[in-house]
Design brief:
Elements lengths: L3 E6 L4 E5 L15 H4 L2 E2 L3 H14 L3 E5 L14 H11 L2 E5 L5 H9 L4 E5 L4 H7 L7 H12 L4 E8 L9 H11 L3 E6 L9 H14 L3 E8 L2 H13 L4 E3 L3 H9 L3 E6 L6
Parallel strand pairs: 1-10, 1-11, 2-3, 2-4, 4-5, 5-6, 6-7, 7-8, 8-9, 9-10
Helix pairs in contact: 2-3, 6-7, 7-8, 8-9, 9-10
Length: 275
Amino acid sequence: MSRSITFYRPSPAVFPVSITGGRCELNCPHCEGRYLEQMERATMPPDVIRAFDKAKASGASCVLISGGFTRRGRLPVEGMINVIREGKARTGLRVEVHAGLVEDSTIGALAGAGVDAMLIDVVGDDQTIREYLGGRWSAADYRRALTSIRASSIPVLAPHVLIGVDGGRIRGEFAAVDMIAEARPDACAMLVLTDAPASPDAGEVEKVLDYAREKLECHLTLGCMRGRGVDRSKYEMMAVNLGYDGIANPSPEIEKSVASAGIGVVWKDGCCIFP
């Protein structure tokens, strides 16, 4: 049977919304709020409804609810759950929530609101959480969150791992993959730190990507964030060679390489966590 890989085009199918605007208590060095600036701001409940309507009018198929996190590693989403339910009901759009380490009661409420997928960035090292992210939680808290999401009625659990998150150092990524494997997720996206001065060593990145493919039986993809220039196509080639299921926003170089290798390609508009 011939092999194929899915290439994803997230934009404009995925409409990202920040319910905290440009605010984030963590303000991590690799982001410093820059990614929030690229999202639709919806800091009040009526804003969220307008964001759903805008997403529908723009032709999007999915709304991503995200924003800045608290020092406890959580998206303050509790006050928006009713309008998420209303927005989904009136537009019929798929809803993803990037909520972090929210409480079990919040997970249950999001499930009741009809959320289709929960995204959670998993960090496997306490020192990274405390010193780099400035967080007040531990790596063990991810195990609780993953277990709770898995036990809920939310259809898709899709953790993410940012390789080199601690200033380019590989510290905790393998532990993160182990915790994710225990939770038996539906999908997982691997990301790579994009800050050039602090980029992780390519050989170390490949080790983590290889370990994830070995440990995870779920739909496994290389996500949107993954370096720039030569590094970007290098990581993409690693994913192809390691048998990853998909790549978000593939470069022209990897498109040519896949075609020359005789690997079939399926193009999909949307988020790479959905097979």
